[in-house]
Amino acid sequence: QVHVVESGGGLVQPGGSLKLSCAASGNIFSIFVLGWYRQSPGKQRDMVATISSADGTDYADSVKGRFTISKDSAKNTVYLQMNSLSPEDTAVYYCYARLVTTDWATRNYWGQGTQVTVSS
Fold first, then answer.
1. Which of the chain's termini has less CB crowding within 10 Å, N or C?
2. Using 50, 70 and 90 to split pLDDT, how confident is the model at 18?
3. What is the rounded CA–CA span in Å between residue 64 and residue 67?
4. How many angstroms separate the CA atoms of 6 and 30, rounded?
């Protein structure tokens, strides 16, 4: 069993900041990629940011310069620092992990999602 659990969502005013955290736990042998996706009502789930085992990062154009992804490999935890938030960033944010389990299976896992609302 592998569990992926997000935390840190909430309500923030435009221009404000918020930091999301996500911890993966369970039968994990190694992690290839950790990342964040988001989904607004009526829209598809889109990539926000990803970070590889080699610390390579990728960002959606809409968040470049405002969001920063980082990880603590010892804790299997990924973070998303979000600055200069705007109402367009309002969405449910999902943590993603592509990893190898202890029974040598490569699988994708998703968290349950955390709501981020940017509003005055």
1. N
2. very high
3. 6
4. 19
Query: Which residue in the block uniquely carries the two structure tokens 């911890």?
Result: 23
* pLDDT tens digits along 25-57: 999 999 999 999 999 999 999 999 999 999 999
Q: How many CB atoms lie within 10 A of CB 92?
A: 18
**Residue 97, beta-bridge partner list:** 34, 109
SS3 of the chain: helix, strand, coil, percent, to 5: 10, 60, 30
Residue type (1 letter), 111? G
Give the DSSP H or E segment for 112: none
> So what's the pLDDT on residue 75?
96
